[in-house]
Specification:
Layout: H1 2-17, H2 23-60, H3 65-79, H4 85-114, H5 127-134, H6 153-156
Helix pairs in contact: 1-2, 2-3, 3-4
Subcellular location: Mitochondrion inner membrane
GO biological process, one term: protein import into mitochondrial matrix
Membrane topology: Multi-pass membrane protein
Length: about 200
Protein backbone atom coordinates (compact mmCIF):
# COMPACT_ATOMS: atom_id res chain seq x y z
CA UNK A 1 0.00 0.00 0.00
CA UNK A 2 2.83 2.37 0.84
CA UNK A 3 4.77 1.47 -2.30
CA UNK A 4 1.75 2.00 -4.56
CA UNK A 5 0.71 5.24 -2.87
CA UNK A 6 4.30 6.49 -2.81
CA UNK A 7 4.72 5.59 -6.48
CA UNK A 8 1.67 7.58 -7.53
CA UNK A 9 2.53 10.56 -5.32
CA UNK A 10 6.19 10.80 -6.32
CA UNK A 11 5.45 10.22 -10.02
CA UNK A 12 2.99 13.14 -10.01
CA UNK A 13 5.41 15.29 -7.98
CA UNK A 14 8.30 14.40 -10.31
CA UNK A 15 6.33 15.25 -13.46
CA UNK A 16 5.21 18.56 -11.93
CA UNK A 17 8.74 19.60 -10.91
CA UNK A 18 10.45 18.52 -14.15
CA UNK A 19 11.11 20.94 -17.04
CA UNK A 20 9.08 20.80 -20.26
CA UNK A 21 10.05 17.89 -22.48
CA UNK A 22 11.43 15.88 -19.54
CA UNK A 23 8.27 15.41 -17.50
CA UNK A 24 7.75 11.68 -18.12
CA UNK A 25 11.37 10.76 -17.46
CA UNK A 26 11.48 13.09 -14.44
CA UNK A 27 8.38 11.46 -12.97
CA UNK A 28 9.81 7.98 -13.55
CA UNK A 29 13.12 8.99 -11.94
CA UNK A 30 11.36 10.46 -8.89
CA UNK A 31 9.29 7.27 -8.64
CA UNK A 32 12.40 5.04 -8.73
CA UNK A 33 14.21 7.16 -6.15
CA UNK A 34 11.44 7.67 -3.59
CA UNK A 35 8.79 4.93 -3.86
CA UNK A 36 10.95 2.15 -2.29
CA UNK A 37 11.74 4.42 0.65
CA UNK A 38 8.07 5.22 1.25
CA UNK A 39 7.09 1.56 0.88
CA UNK A 40 9.77 0.47 3.33
CA UNK A 41 8.78 3.12 5.86
CA UNK A 42 5.15 2.07 5.57
CA UNK A 43 6.13 -1.59 6.05
CA UNK A 44 8.15 -0.77 9.18
CA UNK A 45 5.29 1.31 10.60
CA UNK A 46 2.74 -1.42 9.83
CA UNK A 47 4.92 -4.14 11.34
CA UNK A 48 5.51 -2.20 14.55
CA UNK A 49 1.84 -1.26 14.80
CA UNK A 50 0.77 -4.90 14.40
CA UNK A 51 3.32 -5.99 17.00
CA UNK A 52 2.13 -3.44 19.55
CA UNK A 53 -1.53 -4.18 18.74
CA UNK A 54 -1.09 -7.93 19.29
CA UNK A 55 0.88 -7.25 22.48
CA UNK A 56 -1.96 -5.08 23.79
CA UNK A 57 -4.54 -7.75 22.95
CA UNK A 58 -2.43 -10.31 24.83
CA UNK A 59 -1.80 -8.02 27.82
CA UNK A 60 -5.37 -6.73 28.20
CA UNK A 61 -7.18 -9.92 27.09
CA UNK A 62 -9.67 -7.70 25.24
CA UNK A 63 -10.26 -6.85 21.60
CA UNK A 64 -11.41 -3.23 21.49
CA UNK A 65 -10.43 0.11 19.90
CA UNK A 66 -8.18 1.05 22.83
CA UNK A 67 -5.65 -1.55 21.67
CA UNK A 68 -5.25 0.19 18.31
CA UNK A 69 -5.07 3.64 19.90
CA UNK A 70 -2.36 2.56 22.35
CA UNK A 71 -0.53 0.69 19.58
CA UNK A 72 -0.57 3.80 17.37
CA UNK A 73 0.84 5.92 20.18
CA UNK A 74 3.52 3.33 20.97
CA UNK A 75 4.49 3.04 17.31
CA UNK A 76 4.81 6.79 16.87
CA UNK A 77 6.87 7.12 20.03
CA UNK A 78 9.09 4.15 19.20
CA UNK A 79 9.89 5.41 15.70
CA UNK A 80 10.82 8.89 17.02
CA UNK A 81 12.84 7.65 19.98
CA UNK A 82 16.18 8.63 18.39
CA UNK A 83 15.22 12.31 18.28
CA UNK A 84 14.86 12.48 22.06
CA UNK A 85 12.08 12.17 24.63
CA UNK A 86 10.30 15.37 23.59
CA UNK A 87 10.00 14.35 19.94
CA UNK A 88 9.05 10.81 20.95
CA UNK A 89 6.30 12.14 23.23
CA UNK A 90 4.91 14.43 20.52
CA UNK A 91 5.02 11.62 17.98
CA UNK A 92 3.30 9.24 20.40
CA UNK A 93 0.58 11.82 21.04
CA UNK A 94 0.04 12.36 17.32
CA UNK A 95 -0.02 8.60 16.65
CA UNK A 96 -2.59 8.08 19.40
CA UNK A 97 -4.76 10.95 18.13
CA UNK A 98 -4.56 9.69 14.55
CA UNK A 99 -5.58 6.16 15.52
CA UNK A 100 -8.32 7.49 17.82
CA UNK A 101 -9.76 9.44 14.89
CA UNK A 102 -9.57 6.40 12.62
CA UNK A 103 -11.17 4.08 15.20
CA UNK A 104 -13.85 6.66 16.06
CA UNK A 105 -14.72 7.13 12.40
CA UNK A 106 -14.90 3.36 11.93
CA UNK A 107 -17.20 2.96 14.94
CA UNK A 108 -19.47 5.78 13.81
CA UNK A 109 -19.61 4.37 10.28
CA UNK A 110 -20.49 0.93 11.63
CA UNK A 111 -23.17 2.41 13.85
CA UNK A 112 -24.73 4.36 10.97
CA UNK A 113 -24.64 1.40 8.59
CA UNK A 114 -25.82 -1.14 11.17
CA UNK A 115 -29.04 0.71 12.06
CA UNK A 116 -30.75 1.76 8.82
CA UNK A 117 -33.27 4.48 9.61
CA UNK A 118 -36.26 5.86 7.74
CA UNK A 119 -37.07 2.57 6.03
CA UNK A 120 -40.69 1.98 4.99
CA UNK A 121 -42.48 -0.59 7.16
CA UNK A 122 -42.78 -4.10 5.80
CA UNK A 123 -46.28 -5.24 4.82
CA UNK A 124 -47.51 -7.71 7.45
CA UNK A 125 -50.85 -8.90 6.08
CA UNK A 126 -50.08 -9.23 2.38
CA UNK A 127 -51.26 -12.72 1.26
CA UNK A 128 -49.16 -12.55 -1.92
CA UNK A 129 -46.02 -11.95 0.13
CA UNK A 130 -46.82 -14.88 2.44
CA UNK A 131 -47.37 -17.18 -0.54
CA UNK A 132 -44.12 -16.05 -2.14
CA UNK A 133 -42.17 -16.54 1.07
CA UNK A 134 -43.62 -20.02 1.58
CA UNK A 135 -42.33 -21.19 -1.80
CA UNK A 136 -38.81 -19.77 -1.37
CA UNK A 137 -35.90 -21.83 -0.10
CA UNK A 138 -35.13 -25.51 -0.01
CA UNK A 139 -35.46 -28.21 -2.60
CA UNK A 140 -38.35 -30.59 -3.23
CA UNK A 141 -38.17 -33.46 -0.79
CA UNK A 142 -35.76 -31.65 1.53
CA UNK A 143 -36.87 -30.25 4.91
CA UNK A 144 -37.25 -26.49 5.20
CA UNK A 145 -34.89 -24.62 7.49
CA UNK A 146 -36.54 -23.27 10.65
CA UNK A 147 -37.17 -19.51 10.69
CA UNK A 148 -34.57 -17.40 12.40
CA UNK A 149 -35.57 -15.91 15.74
CA UNK A 150 -35.23 -12.13 16.17
CA UNK A 151 -32.52 -10.92 18.56
CA UNK A 152 -33.58 -10.30 22.16
CA UNK A 153 -34.69 -6.73 22.90
CA UNK A 154 -31.91 -6.26 25.47
CA UNK A 155 -29.23 -6.57 22.76
CA UNK A 156 -30.89 -3.90 20.62
CA UNK A 157 -30.94 -1.28 23.38
CA UNK A 158 -28.10 1.19 23.28
CA UNK A 159 -26.60 3.24 26.07
CA UNK A 160 -27.74 6.80 26.50
CA UNK A 161 -26.06 9.77 24.88
CA UNK A 162 -24.33 10.36 21.59
CA UNK A 163 -20.88 9.37 22.87
CA UNK A 164 -22.16 7.09 25.65
CA UNK A 165 -21.57 3.82 23.83
CA UNK A 166 -18.60 4.85 21.69
CA UNK A 167 -16.32 2.19 23.13
CA UNK A 168 -19.13 -0.10 24.25
CA UNK A 169 -20.17 -0.70 27.79
CA UNK A 170 -18.90 -3.47 29.97
CA UNK A 171 -21.33 -6.35 30.12
CA UNK A 172 -22.13 -7.73 33.53
CA UNK A 173 -21.43 -11.40 33.91
CA UNK A 174 -24.49 -13.32 35.02
CA UNK A 175 -24.02 -16.30 37.32
CA UNK A 176 -24.32 -19.64 35.62
CA UNK A 177 -27.45 -21.70 36.15
CA UNK A 178 -25.36 -24.63 37.38
CA UNK A 179 -24.68 -22.94 40.73
CA UNK A 180 -21.08 -21.94 40.01
CA UNK A 181 -19.97 -25.42 38.95
CA UNK A 182 -18.14 -25.76 35.67
CA UNK A 183 -19.79 -27.85 33.02
CA UNK A 184 -17.79 -30.27 30.93
CA UNK A 185 -19.06 -30.52 27.41
CA UNK A 186 -19.04 -34.05 26.13
CA UNK A 187 -19.05 -33.18 22.44
CA UNK A 188 -15.65 -34.78 21.93
CA UNK A 189 -16.57 -37.93 23.86
CA UNK A 190 -19.59 -38.84 21.75
CA UNK A 191 -18.90 -40.89 18.64
CA UNK A 192 -19.10 -38.96 15.41
CA UNK A 193 -21.34 -39.89 12.53
CA UNK A 194 -19.79 -42.51 10.25
CA UNK A 195 -17.93 -41.23 7.20
CA UNK A 196 -19.82 -42.14 4.02
CA UNK A 197 -18.15 -44.57 1.68
CA UNK A 198 -18.23 -43.82 -2.03
CA UNK A 199 -17.04 -47.24 -3.15
CA UNK A 200 -18.99 -48.89 -5.94
CA UNK A 201 -20.47 -52.23 -4.86
Amino acid sequence: MGAVGGSVFHFIKGTYNSPNGMRLSGGAQALRMNAPRVGGSFAVWGGLFSTFDCAMVYARQKEDPWNSIIAGAATGGFLSMRQGPGAAGRSALMGGILLALIEGAGLMLNRVLANPQNLPPLPDDDPNMAAAMAGVGGFPGMPQAPPMAPPPPEAASSSGGWLGGLFGKKEEKKPAASGGKSEILESFDTPSTPIPSFEYK
